[in-house]
Amino acid sequence: MSTVSSEVPKVGFVSLGCPKALVDSEQILTQLRAEGYETAKSYEGADLVIVNTCGFIDAAVQESLDAIGEALNENGKVIVTGCLGAKKDAAGDDIIMKVHPKVLAVTGPHALGEVMDAVHLHLPKPHAPFIDLVPAHGIKLTPKHYAYLKISEGCNHRCSFCIIPSMRGDLVSRPIADVMMEAENLFKAGVKELLVISQDTSAYGVDVKFRTGFWNGKPVSTNKTQLVGSLGELSAQYGAWVRLHYVYPYPHVDAVIPMMNGGSVVPYLDVPLQHAHPEVLRRMKRPANGEKNIERIQAWRAMCPDITIRSTFIAGFPGETEEEFQYLLDFLEEAQIDRLGCFAYSPVEGATANLLADPVPEEVREERRSRVMQLQEGISKKRLQAKVGTTIKVLIDEVNRDGGVGRSAADAPEIDGVVYVKPPYEPHLKLKVGEFVDVTVIAADAHDLWAKA
Ligand code: SF4
User: Fold this and answer.
1) Which of 153, 168, 199, when mutated, tests ligand 1's pocket best, judged by the most ligand atoms within 8 Å of its CB?
2) Which atom of ligand 1 is nearest to the CA of 162?
3) Whole-model pTM above 0.90?
4) Does ligand 1 have an atom closer than 6 angstroms to the CB of 111?
5) What is the DSSP letter of 429?
6) Would you state the pLDDT for residue 134?
7) Which of 158, 144, 154 is nearest to 194 (CA)?
8) How far, in Å, is the centroid of ligand 1 from the Cα of 371?
9) Are 242 and 264 in contact (CB under 8 A)?
10) Does 287 sit in the ligand 1 pocket, CB within 6 Å?
11) Is the CB of residue 71 below 6 angstroms from any atom belonging to ligand 1?
């Protein structure tokens, strides 16, 4: 068993397999060295051992399993990486975890980030004066109790009004272990609400073909459903919320809705629909433009009656006829979206939509935008009024002389409404920023709620 506890953390390394595995080993060793870890020459001299495995033929599998067993016996703290880490047996179970359930983490090949995450978790980095000026959760510009978690960069779509893909490129999903590690660091640092963002959250993992990653020693696919499930489990441990933004209405989104009934993944979906008329959506080249959005929204509400749907729309897109606009209004009336933003179309330099025929005059775009907002005002008022008399959980953002200002599961920071909370009657029950409190709703307008603690 490992007994070493020197000031400089030491890592033992066993490298098996082909030249590709050897390169992976070199990269891991280089990174370890760059971060100030030392390499141990023996099991006894190591604080932790990494075994890079091969899974090509039966003999190589056996050799790898033996090497893991030996490292476990001699040292006890073992992280496994390499081809065997990604291999399953006939029953679909992870081979390594079945034979050696005591290993600390298992990753597949070419997984530098995940291996380093596992090392950091089980053998913290040595002190580096310059790097350590930055906390583990990075530098955040949001208040201490909420944070944004970016799961990917770029976008594979080519919406005609948008130039993001030309600036940021195609979708690149972050490894799921990196995302989970960041989430855990944020929760450890006191974050009570994590806002999952990207350009298209539904597409998470498409670019890496939903590659299997590892989190907490268990295989997890790089896809939205497994990510939300894992974040939900983690946030439940820390008594925190997870909120999903930029989700496109594909059928597979249905799988995450039941996860919202437990409370840690809040029943809230930010689904940027932009329009309802099929022809306008086609001209916009919107993802999921063939989906039946009314049916989808109704199905989500049937699965999770408390769900809050947020969306954004564009009024006066080039070529939008009065009939197409009316179709949008009818859709909004039927969909009863809880939180809605509407922009008058504004041509962005470089967007292909600028080349479309029949641009809508600016005053008509503005007028249509205000008609949408007027309609929405009535819908929102009615929906918020229905909450009066109910008890809801609120995360306090601000405390002032009048009590506090917080947000419920239905309110994302900056973009949705707030809940004004009267101070509790008992003087010892003080409202505190970053804490949850159950409140009874006593009044509502078209945007905000008033409540007493
Ligand atoms: S608007 Fe369309 S192209 Fe632009 S980032 Fe969103 S999905 Fe991608």
Assistant:
1) 199
2) 4
3) no
4) no
5) S
6) 60
7) 144
8) 25
9) yes
10) yes
11) no
Mutate to test the pocket of ligand 1, among 162, 197, 312, 317 (most ligand atoms within 8 A of CB): 162
| DSSP string for residues in 30-85 | HHHHHTT-EE-SSSTT-SEEEEEE--SSHHHHHHHHHHHHHHHHHTS-EEEEEGGG
pLDDT tens readout for residues 103-160: 999 988 888 888 998 998 889 887 665 555 666 666 667 888 999 999 998 899 999 9
In short, whether 199's Cβ falls inside 6 Å of ligand 1 is yes
Nearest CA owner, ligand 1 atom 5:
199
Whole-angstrom distance, CA of residue 264 vs CA of residue 230? 11
Determine the residue type at 167. Answer: M
Q: Residue 158 CA: which ligand 1 atom is closest?
A: 3
In angstroms, the CA 105 to CA 203 distance is: 27
189 and 137 Cβ atoms separated by less than 8 Å? yes
Q: Is the pLDDT of residue 315 over 60?
A: yes
Q: How confident is the model at residue 25 (pLDDT cuts 50, 70, 90)?
A: confident
* 3 state DSSP class of 342: strand
HSE-up (13 A, CA, CB side) for residue 412: 26
352 lines ligand 1 (CB under 6 A): no
Residue spans of beta strands (DSSP E) within 198-326: 212-215, 218-221, 241-244, 265-270, 308-315
How many other β-carbons are positioned within 10 Å of the β-carbon of residue 233? 16
- Residue among 273, 365, 277, 379 nearest 327 (CA): 277
Is ligand 1 within 6 A of the CB of residue 451? no
Residue with tokens 């399993």: 65
Report the C-alpha gap between 322 and 325 in whole angstroms: 5
Residues belonging to the chain:
453
285 lines ligand 1 (CB under 6 A): no
Q: What three-state secondary structure class fits 255?
A: helix
Q: Exposed e or buried b for every residue in 102-125, given b needs 16+ CB within 10 A?
A: ebbbbbbbbbebbbbbbbeeebeb
Instruction: Quote the strand ranges of 356-418, DSSP E.
Output: 391-400, 403-408
Dist. CA 59 → ligand 1 center (Å): 49
Which amino acid is residue 451, in one-letter code?
Answer: A
